Amino acid sequence: MEIARISSKGQIVIPQKMRNELEINDRTIMAIEKIKDMIIIKKVEDDLVKQFDQGLKDLKLGKVRRVA
Question: Would you say 30 and 23 are in contact if contact means Cβ atoms under 8 Å apart?
Fold first, then answer.
C-alpha cells in the first residue's frame, strides 16, 4: 500500500512504481468508481475506449446495435 496526499485541486499522484507496473502514462484513461467509503481507480484499455467512441458515433447517426 502507498500513501498519497490530495492537492487543493483534488488531484492525487499515483506512485511512479505503480504507473510503471501498470503502464500508465499521461494519455491513459482511468475509470473511477465510489464503493461505500472507497474510491476505485482502474485503467481502461484503449480497445474499450475505441468501442465506446464508435458506439457514441453510431448512436448519433441513428445506428443502434444490440449487444448480446
Answer: no
Cell numbers that stand for 12 in this block = 492525487
Task: For residue 57, give Cα distances in angstroms to 20, 27, 44.
Answer: 33, 21, 19
Is-contact 29 49, C-beta < 8 A?
yes
Tell me if the pTM is above 0.85.
no
Per-residue pLDDT reduced to its tens digit, 46-57: 777 777 777 778
Q: Which of 43, 9, 40 is nearest to 25 (CA)?
A: 43
Of the candidates 22, 16, 67, 27, the residue with the CA atom closest to the CA atom of residue 49: 27
Residue type, 22: L
State which H helix or E strand residue 53 sits in. Answer: helix 46-60
